[in-house]
Write a structure and sequence with these properties.
single chain; alpha/beta; Inosine-uridine Nucleoside N-ribohydrolase, Chain A; two-stranded antiparallel ribbon; 12 strands; about 20% strand; globular; binds beta-D-ribofuranose; binds calcium ion
């Protein structure tokens, strides 16, 4: 049976790829949106347009506009003015469902008790509020798979990755919620990206692939200009791939906590990699593992598989 998955996202170029990938390989039961790469209105419209482009009949609920603490920080980022620049996506052919994302998440977790994988590929605000509102929420999930954090460098600060930095308090709630967690952090996702040849393959494909090729050409250009990268990291799909294709990402059990107070380190995921002895564990001072943390990726194989998936849309 295909894994049931719900994607909480903020499209975002790599979010768009993650949605298409999940819909092809898994049982995508819903999408929720969260502030992050752009305003809640824009990321919701972007997500609906991606569903419309690919003809995916999946319910979508709009979520939080701001983090748990303070207001959403407006950051000029790699996704352009709209949050999904680079192509003319179709106008959405539907509206979000009436329920708020927090209630929708609770409802879906309850309906699919023990079966649902929740993919969190934007800030964790909706998830943290669902945990607070329904104390059984985390126990109803099969697993939470996260694109966020890093075992090493950050992207928005030297030590913080964007999704966690956007709402560190929410991420801390999520990592402490007790559900099994899989974390694909910037340490692996930043080296797992599409290059110019991948973009050209997409541009030579069908209608959906051509739109994605135009989007990823824009995203690659931004990565080149801003960071000097020759790949565009497909951060978000890394959180989804393990449910369809095993062996492309290697994980290790690890204790993860989120720094909330540091003047220079707020939003850092502190990953206790002292578990990484040759024997796979350390003998002292190591907190109990609350997550499987990605430490290595078969980047080229993974990207080929993802590009082939996008090309398989007509
Ligand atoms: C994360 O931040 C967003 O810009 C991407 O969509 C991804 O979820 C990478 O740090
Ligand atoms: Ca994202």
């Amino acid at each position: 049976m295909r894994t049931k998955i719900l994607i909480d996202c903020d499209p975002g170029h790599d979010d768009a790829v993650a949605i298409l990938y999940a819909a092809k390989h898994l049982d995508l039961v819903g999408v929720t949106t969260c502030h992050g790469n752009n305003t809640i209105e824009n990321v919701t419209r972007n997500a609906l347009s991606v569903l419309t482009l690919a003809g995916l009949v999946v319910p979508l609920a709009q979520g939080c506009a701001d983090p748990l603490v303070g207001r959403k920080a407006l950051v000029v980022n790699a996704h352009g003015k709209s949050g999904l620049d680079g192509t003319d996506l179709p106008e959405p052919d539907r509206a979000p469902v009436a329920a708020h994302a927090v209630d929708f998440l609770i409802d879906m977790a309850s309906t699919h008790r023990g079966e649902l994988v929740l993919a969190v590929i934007g800030p964790a605000t909706n998830v943290a509020l669902a945990i607070k509102k329904e104390p059984r929420f985390a126990s109803w999930l099969r697993e939470i798979t996260v694109m966020g954090g890093s075992t090493a460098l950050g992207n928005i600060t030297p030590v913080a990755e964007y999704n966690v930095w956007c709402d560190p308090e929410a991420a801390a709630e999520m990592f402490a919620c007790g559900a099994p967690i899989r974390m694909a952090g910037y340490n692996v996702t930043s080296v797992t990206g599409t290059n110019e040849a991948d973009v050209n393959r997409l541009l030579g494909g069908g209608r959906v692939a051509r739109h994605m090729g135009e989007l990823l050409a824009f995203y690659l250009g931004k990565q080149r200009d801003r960071f000097g990268f020759d790949i565009a990291p497909m951060h978000d799909v890394c959180a989804i791939v393990p449910y369809a294709q095993e062996g492309l990402i290697e994980y290790r059990p690890c204790h993860v906590d989120v720094e909330l107070n540091g003047r220079l380190t707020r939003g850092m995921t502190v990953c206790d990699l002292r578990t990484l002895t040759p024997q796979g564990r350390a003998d002292r001072g190591v907190g109990e593992a609350n997550a499987l943390v990605a430490i290595r990726t078969e980047a080229r194989r993974l990207i080929d598989h993802v590009v082939a998936t996008v090309l398989s849309y007509s």
